[in-house]
Write a structure and sequence with these properties.
The protein starts with about 25 loop residues before the first strand and ends with a strand. A three-stranded antiparallel β-sheet has the order 2-1-3. Helix 1 packs across helix 2. It is built from three helices and three strands, in the order βααβαβ. It has about 100 residues and is an alpha+beta fold.
């Protein structure tokens, strides 16, 4: 006994299926407060590495000062890691202990 394959419909149209791809996770870059880094230096870092104007940078710097940490921006993983490294290197060059970290959002 041979099994027959089901007959295809003559007017069947194949619809493309879209793969549902989840967007990559984003990371927030944070500056952490310390007792030694001058506030003016933090403002310069925020302007230079995160493209903030002086007013925005001052608001974030005060948040870091008062709350212990402040969000500098939200980026894809590679961009966030690069920003953390750049800020750390700049702080070391200028002999400041400013800490910059990233966290998944």
């Amino acid at each position: 006994m041979a099994t027959q394959k089901p007959a295809r419909e003559a007017n069947a149209v194949l619809e493309p299926q879209r793969a549902k791809v989840k967007p990559p996770p984003l990371y927030q870059v944070l500056l952490l407060n310390d007792d030694f880094t001058p506030m003016d230096f933090v403002v310069v870092v925020l302007q230079q590495f995160f493209g903030m104007n002086r007013e925005q940078a001052t608001v974030v710097m005060l948040k870091v000062h008062r709350e212990g940490k402040g969000v500098c921006g939200i980026f894809p993983r590679d961009v966030a890691a690069t920003k953390v490294e750049q800020v750390g290197a700049f702080a070391r060059q200028n002999q400041h202990p400013l800490a910059c970290v990233m966290e998944e959002t």
